[in-house]
Amino acid sequence: MTADILRKKFLDFFKAKKHKVVESDSLVPKDDPTVLFTPAGMNQFKREFLGFTSGFNRAATSQRCLRTDDLDKVGKTPSHHTFFEMLGNFSFGDYFKKESIAWAWEFLTKELKIDKERLWVSVYKDDEEAYGIWKDEVGLPDRKIVKLGDKENFWPSEAKTKGPNGPCGPCSEIFFDQGKDVGCKREECDPSCNCPRFTEVWNLVFTQYNRKEDGTLTPLPKKNIDTGMGLERLAAVMQGKENNFETELFAPLIREIIFEVKNDNPDNRPLVYAIADHIRAIVFSIYDGVLPSNEARGYVVRKLIRRSVLYLRSMKTEKPYLYKLVPVVAEIMRAYYPELKARQENIAEIVLAEEKNFIATMNSSESLFRERFQGFIKKQDPEEVGIATFQLYDTYGIPLELTLAWLDKNNISFSRQTFNNELSRQKERSKSQSAMKGDVFSSPDMQYRGIICKFSGYECFSSKAKIIKIIKDNKEVKKLSKGEDAIIILDKTVFYPEGGGQVGDTGELTKGKNAFAVLDTKKSGKAILHTGKMKSGSLKKGDLILASVNYERRMDIARNHTATHLLQAALRQVLGKHVQQQGSLVTAEKLRFDFTHFKDISDEQTERIEETVNDFILNNHKVEVKQKALALAKKAGALAFFGEKYDSKVRVVSVGGVSSELCGGTHLKASGEIGIFKIIQEGSIASGVRRIEAVCGNAAYKVIKAQEQCLRSICMSLNVPQDRLCEEIDKRITRMKHLEKQLDTQTLNALSDSLEELIQGAEVLREIKLITKVIDSLDMNLLRKNIDLIKSKTKSSIIALGSVVGGRAMLVMGLTPDLVVKGLDAGAMIKDIAQIIGGSGGGRADFAQAGGSKPENFNQAFEKLRDIIWKI
Ligand SMILES: [Zn+2]
Ligand SMILES: [Zn+2]
Predict the structure, then answer these.
(1) Which ligand lies nearest the alpha carbon of 189?
(2) Residue 591: nearest ligand to its CA?
């Protein structure tokens, strides 16, 4: 039975048991600072577990998850993964132990027809209720129900004694017996044994307690069910494989990798497995909007790519290869993630860019090592070397072995102790970064739970509503008076709450002369919060008020929002279909759009993008909004932003035939209302990600107006009409260059006489003529010309000329060719002298220059030069 069938059977089974089948949440959990990546199925339901309403109290999912705690085990064991899918069914204060156990048993034995004899279970040692259900209702014999302790069968593990506070409870696990011939082969082997005979298939968590600050457990008023079953492991069990990597979820990847490395040595298997694992994690992270970078999440992706590249290198594959596996992952996951196909080229490009980068770093490691460690050849300092080695490892991903080999070759000693210390400190850091911060369930906005507030402001901008809650300083109050800051919640509202990149509305809530100014609108769960200040009079809970959105501002926002959709369409037309949204911000003032693109954007392209959007505007396409099923909308090609989580019913906003996107924002009625669209900035913000900022309507008009005024004032100063401006500027530049040249020649001519004098007055040290002088306000170019002139008129000379420009010292040195032949080097001499004038310098044997901050030290510098010459 394939994983695709198992996934479907599971979801269908629980759908028939009245569960809402919810789409997998993104790997990047929204509004959850406690985790870096989604680690389990229950995470997207934290609010429901706490009693927030979402319209259903039973759910089932196949959740994509990512964990990196056991990274070093991946590939070496049959069932450790970074990326995996977790099947789960959930009850929010609805059914409990009895149904949960009965249905799990029914699914495994009836639906999947697993032999009852091969299933064992464990329960928490004090959970008599679960024990009784397994024994009396399911009919399992005593010997097959194993009692386990706080560590194994309580969730969160050991929460009873160690915390965290919040919902917790016992669990019950279901195991598959691989048979007597597997594992320790002891007669008394059971699921408590650490050997591989018993494979844990399903974990049922009975969340029935609330752990309080003082460590006591009190029964929850509404008990929850949270279950999790690894799809990969279930597939292996169902296919009679002892190793997850032998299932069809991995087999095509493993075949490809082995074919590429042309080496099926069993010793390499763990590496091949690890690569097959990592590429799935890489593909789905990028799919969910995480690009390789040095920041927390991005660094995980970067690390997984680098590890894979190193594994490939150790199997003699040194060219970028990983990216070729992206379509293989897309093909394997096609049934549940059909949209992966459409993004595979884009994802592959991101992987390829990162691979190339890392391979280039590896290939240039020689020069990196030289730069970093040169100083330690003479001056041994093992601890410093240990730290530097760690930095190379941490920042550039250079493997330790590679660095050690180079250090060894160059006789540089290295302190492994220091390296290990740095490494464990880094591990601590990343652990504290990725570990759950605070309680598993902590929600700053508990006071909004249970509130559902409908947004009704797509079509209208003001409506009557009732105040149902007032929050001031995090506490509920009955009444607000003039001058007080607060959050007001209404039964329904026309105010758009910040979301999908669009800022929240502002406006007023009024009742006669009593007015509350709304300064921002945000969402918390299903509640919509109006944040602001009482401007006049007072308002109280239960009041009927008139809610009015600031219309002008809302229209400016709508212009920028509709234009953002048109911009994305234009980018895909001009640059290509690989353009994917990475983020956006829509305010009343401007719009910002981040997208994937791997090359620079030329001025011509930027112009074409702007023109294309303005064409869409001129054609005055109608904006249409339709509610559709998510799957249908995606099938019809509506663009979705992968950082966003969508409901099963989605809102599709289309503009004529040019743009169609899933979007919950507020829009215009037709594209013509945008007026004008003007790009004000374009640039790169991360590797492979670019940002465009633009303005619309009145703001665009103002930008154009300001440019026009600037142009007019230039014309005025130059005293030319606009149509001759470019010509006039060209003319003036040519004339300026000509004048500069003339000035130089005159200055040189004037100097020429004094140069003769300089040469005559040269001092002679050890048969070398030394010519030194500080000349006022000569630039580098003229100093250089002077040196050349003197060199052409004399022999066996060292010339050092100084000048002070803008308070800074400039020094140039020249050597006549006969001295260079003798092995003298101006570049070397100037290094010591430059320090005296407070700077640094360098150059060739016949010419060198330096700059510094101490022009008062020229005489000392020349003195130093005399010293140097005496020592030659
Ligand atoms: Zn055993
Ligand atoms: Zn939108």
Answers:
(1) 1
(2) 2
User: Nearest to residue 793, comparing CAs of 765, 814, 824, 773?
Assistant: 814
User: Is the distance from CB of 165 to CB of 176 less than 8 angstroms?
Assistant: no
Q: What is the mean pLDDT of residues 618-639?
A: 89
pLDDT above 70 for 128: yes
Between the CA of 188 and the centroid of ligand 1 the distance, in Å, is 8
- Average pLDDT, integer, range 573-599: 90
The answer to whether residue 736 sits within a structural domain is: no
CA atoms within 13 A on the CB side of 529: 19
pLDDT at res. 435 = 44
Same domain, 397 and 276: no
In a domain, 278, yes or no: yes
Residues linked to residue 624 through DSSP beta bridges, in sequence order:
654
Ligand 2 centroid, distance to 665 Cα (angstroms): 5
Q: Is 822 helix (H, G, I), strand (E, B) or coil?
A: coil
Which of 273, 217, 265, 214 is CA-nearest to residue 249? 273
User: Quick one: tokens of 791?
Assistant: 């060199």
Check whether residue 559 and residue 646 sit in a common domain: yes
- Are the C-beta atoms of 63 and 85 separated by less than 8 Å? yes
Residue 393 CA to ligand 2 center (angstroms) comes to: 42
Domain count, the chain: 6
User: Is 157 found in the same domain as 31?
Assistant: yes
Predicted confidence band of residue 440 (pLDDT cuts 50, 70, 90):
low
Residue 398 in domain: yes
Nearest ligand, CA 501? 2
Q: How many Å lie between the centroid of ligand 2 and the Cα of residue 666?
A: 8
Sign of CA dihedral 751, 757, 763, 764: positive
User: Is 751 a member of any domain?
Assistant: no
594 near 581, Cβ under 8 Å?
yes
Q: Which residues are within 8 A (CB) of 507 and not within 5 positions of it... i.e. 6 or more apart?
A: 495, 518, 547, 548, 549, 550
d(CA 775, CA 228): 82
The residues with which 801 forms a beta bridge, in sequence order, are 773, 812
Report pTM.
Answer: 0.69
521 CA to middle of ligand 2, Å? 17
Q: Please check whether residues 395 and 354 belong to one and the same domain.
A: no
The pLDDT assigned to 667 comes to 96
pLDDT at 361: 85
Q: What is the distance in A from the centroid of ligand 2 to the CA of 297?
A: 25
In the three-class reduction of DSSP (H, G, I as helix; E, B as strand; rest coil), residue 246 is classed as: helix
CA of 35 to the centre of ligand 2 (A): 27
Q: Mean pLDDT for the chain?
A: 90
Q: For residue 191, how far is its CA from the centre of ligand 1 (angstroms)?
A: 8
Q: Which ligand is nearest to the CA of 641?
A: 2
Nearest Cα neighbor of 244 from 392, 420, 79, 367 is: 79
pLDDT of residue 272: 96
